[in-house]
Design brief:
alpha/beta; Rossmann fold; globular; binds NADPH dihydro-nicotinamide-adenine-dinucleotide phosphate; binds 2-oxoglutaric acid; nucleotide binding; Glu/Leu/Phe/Val_DH_AS; NAD(P)-bd_dom_sf; NAD_bind_Glu_DH
């Protein structure tokens, strides 16, 4: 099932549990605005190259639309649409005053030089600058983009609208970024994992973890789990996968990845088939890369007892069903990875106030938001007799539906 069909399905199940009116259900599903732009840039060798960029603004009932920008070869409208919708429910689950959006450019950032990436980002910003803004739509990093990408967007946007640090989050600290934002998604994943494990009388210390993806989210989650005494026994990136039953030395692996750009040839573990990672023996599996990686092909073979969805929509509905029959507990993406957008909200607040928080305050507030959201989800699970995914969806959808009704959608 494609990402949009899967996301719509989860939304509809939640809508039925909540007993939403069918007209309201339809209005919540259809995106507010879909933007598709052509981005042509000169390559370093003087030839021209054209890429297609998207920004899908899903809903703004609860506040400005918010969500990352992804640079990846698989960026296409249905995927971006699904990711934008997930942002709407995620910001509502986190209880931060935003709606949802997502954007992306179909490109392979690994094949572009830094100056090509800068030109592409600036052209994309020129095409969408009048449709984003501090109180309308605030982009942030996602797969294949980072603080530098946000700096280029900020600079290009400011040429049209004056200096506007709050138009993007996940910026470099020197341009008004928040302390703690870079680590925030991984840190939020760890707070979410702690909240879940505590329900089962367990903690991170001594448990074994398999982590797919070693970029921003995967590397920070690995580092913090390692610091808390968890054993990361398998990791992967696009170049390959690595296992060590005694636990991988994550600080050493981080140095190796920084130096070589890949996990390959690290001598603190044995290499393994990357497809093996998802079905490797471990207590907790954390997908931190692409969507749809857990599907009917591999779900029956998953050995983990807990899955923490750090990536967006890593589990397709068929896998969801198979895994739940096996008794695997899944902490859903719209909660598990909400730490990133939560600290993006703190960054936006700091920019608007013109006052910087210290990192301790950022992390303390993040923990408060993640813990509160977990308990709110549990309450929805009890009220609707449903699993954690439906607990999170009903929580988010209900908040957006209430805001929509209060604003007078029937008028
Ligand atoms: N950044 C954020 O704040 C947030 C991100 N997310 C989600 O988390 C996920 C990861 O995002 P982020 O860490 O920012 O992205 P990055 O681009 O920083 O990292 C992505 C990682 O995934 C790896 N990867 C890509 N394709 C594969 C593959 N086929 N198999 C195994 N590994 C692969 C990459 O490998 P390599 O290192 O070799 O390139 C890289 O390690 C995405 O689903 C994103 O939407 C969710 C919330 C917020
Ligand atoms: O920080 C943000 O605004 C968005 C992060 C994001 O894209 C996501 O949560 O998937």
């Amino acid at each position: 099932m494609n990402a949009l069909a899967a996301t719509n399905r989860n939304f509809r199940l939640a809508s039925r549990l909540l007993g939403l009116d069918s007209k309201l259900e339809k209005s919540l599903l259809i995106p507010f605005r879909e933007i598709k732009v052509e981005c042509t840039i000169p390559k370093d060798d003087g030839t021209l190259a054209t890429y297609v960029g998207f920004r899908i603004q899903h809903d703004n009932a609860r506040g400005p639309m918010k969500g990352g920008i992804r640079y990846h070869p698989e960026v296409e409208p249905d995927e971006v649409n699904a990711l934008a919708q997930l942002m709407t429910w995620k910001t509502a689950v986190a209880d931060i005053p935003y709606g949802g959006a997502k954007g992306g450019i179909g490109c392979n950032p690994r094949d572009l030089s830094k100056s090509e990436l800068e030109r592409l980002t600036r052209v994309f910003t020129q095409k969408i600058h009048d449709l984003i803004g501090i109180h309308t739509d605030v982009p942030a990093p996602d797969m294949g983009t980072n603080a530098q990408t946000m700096a280029w967007i900020l600079d290009e946007y400011s040429k049209f609208h004056g200096h506007s640090p709050a138009v993007v989050t996940g910026k470099p600290i020197d341009l008004g970024g928040s302390l703690g934002r870079e680590a925030a998604t991984g840190r939020g994943v760890v707070y979410a994992t702690e909240a879940l494990l505590a329900e089962y009388g367990k903690s991170i210390k001594g448990m074994t973890f398999g982590i797919q993806g070693f970029g921003n989210v995967g590397s920070w989650a690995s580092r913090l789990i390692h610091e808390k005494g968890g054993k990361v026994i398998a990791v992967s990136d696009i170049t390959g996968a690595l296992k060590n039953t005694n636990g991988i030395d994550i600080p050493e692996l981080l140095k190796h990845k920084e130096a070589t750009g890949s996990l390959k040839s690290f001598n603190g573990g044995d290499s393994m088939d990357p497809n093996e990672l998802l079905v490797h023996e471990c207590d907790v599996l954390i997908p931190c890369a692409l969507g749809g990686v857990l599907n009917r092909e591999n779900a029956a073979d998953v050995k983990a007892k807990f899955i923490i969805e750090a990536a967006n929509h890593p589990t397709d509905p068929e896998a969801d069903e198979i895994l739940s029959k096996k008794g695997v507990i899944i902490l859903p993406d719209i909660y598990a990875n909400a730490g990133g957008v939560t600290v993006s909200y703190f960054e936006w607040v700091q920019n608007i106030q013109g006052f910087m928080w210290d990192e301790e305050k950022v992390n303390q507030e993040l923990k408060k938001y993640m813990t509160k959201a977990f308990h709110n989800i549990k309450n929805m699970c009890q009220s609707h007799d449903c699993n954690l995914r439906m607990g999170a969806f009903t929580l988010g959808v209900n908040r957006v539906a209430r805001a929509t009704i209060l604003r007078g959608w029937e008028a």
